[in-house]
Amino acid sequence: xxxxxxxxxxxxxxxxxxxxxxxxQKIYSEDPIAVARQFEKEGATMLHIVDLxxxxxxxxxxxxxxxxxxxxxxxPIQVGGGIRSMESAKKYLEGGVWxxxxxxxxxxxxxxxxxxxxxxxxxxxxxxxxxxxxQISSHGWQETxxxxxxxxxTKLRLLGVCDLIVTDVTRDGMLTSPNYALMKSIxxxxxxxxxxxxxxxxxxxxxxxxxxxxxxxxxKALYEGKLLLKKAxxxxxxxxxxxTKRIIPCLDIKNGRVVKGTRFESLRDAxxxxxLGKKYSEEGADELVFLDIAASKENRGTMMDLVKKVARxxxxxxxVGGGIRxxxxxxxxxxxxxxxxxLNTAAILNPNLISAASEKFGAQCIxxxxxxxxxxxxxRVFIKGGSEPTTWNALKWAKEAEKLGAGEILLTSMDSDxxxxxxxxxxxxxxxxxxxxxxxxxxxxxxxxxxxxxCVQGQADAVLAASLFHYGSVSxxxxxxxxxxxxxxxxx
Length: 492
Description:
Strand order of the largest sheet: 1-4-5-6-7-10-11-12
Number of strands: 24
Structural class: alpha/beta
Oligomer: single chain
């Protein structure tokens, strides 16, 4: 279940309405950008933003402000309110917004919806259905339609729509409870539902989770302090293992080039990092990881110029690691364009860095890399590019990293790395079962079956590979098609 804090904007201010009535507005902040930053800092993984003025008049009115938000924070945003033309859709989608919300236009302009699908892809649009007293509501909740809900849902299915935001307008902003029957009926009609309207406490989130609802939009409950965001995000973490599995190429960097070896040794050249990153992005990779493998060993920072070049050429999330030693270096790298930071050696030497970074930038930006080698019967953590053992047991360190505020773990088996003989499934399962945050499997991918084993037996949330992709043994598309054929959820 994804948790989406809501920012409703009216006259440039952050407001909330009750039952969709504009006269009921209550101002919570004069600065929606500051609100967005705070939600990001608290760990939100996505924001829901509505231009209420645009919804009412039929054309975006706060679009410049919303685009500033999109380009200020790192997490994706979905935006709705008055998007009823291709011009409005393009401005948002080409300006940094992750996806747009179509409400009124989806009801009245089917051809526009189809045109946006064709130009930007279905994943860039989510349709919103607002219900008021059993009728479909539109035009900023000011009008109702005589369209039959079942017929409308059938039409949406024929258009290929799979995801819906469903709002019971009569409960929105009332701090009561969601319309569970409405949410369930639309889910049972074959849609993934994000619930809105009346989601006010943990009990409501638990009920939605039990109904199989895919997400929840939280508004007044957050602003009034009835529900803490960190408590709500626990429901997102609960379902992390059921989310789409990510396929992530890893690019190890040394002297400005991508290299790959076996068990962290015998390195050979694999190409230019920017060109490879761009290639993998175009081939459908979900994310990328760039690791400056010599930085910690050589006691220097990671390569800033590379981060800036990648940010200009690559349009999927990417993580940067290697030689990062303090919060200021993290800030500079994130500002340069990185989406996440991987801490390995520095996290071991200064565990408080995890807490400080998570507090300042949000847990979703902080990945803790754990390089592991089996010593006798114990899985031991190594640092400095795998050259130096620590006293940490891998399982204990993973739990400690989570406790300190890590948002994700990048788990590498040094014994399997580069061998293409399969992941260390026992290690992977131990760690995945012990922590609630996502775990990325790394080290040993050599076949399509290895990806399946990591996802199913190892319970990995994402699978990372290097040699297999760099030297053309298997493509990202082949991996995804294979997993999809086994009903393992991946983004095609």
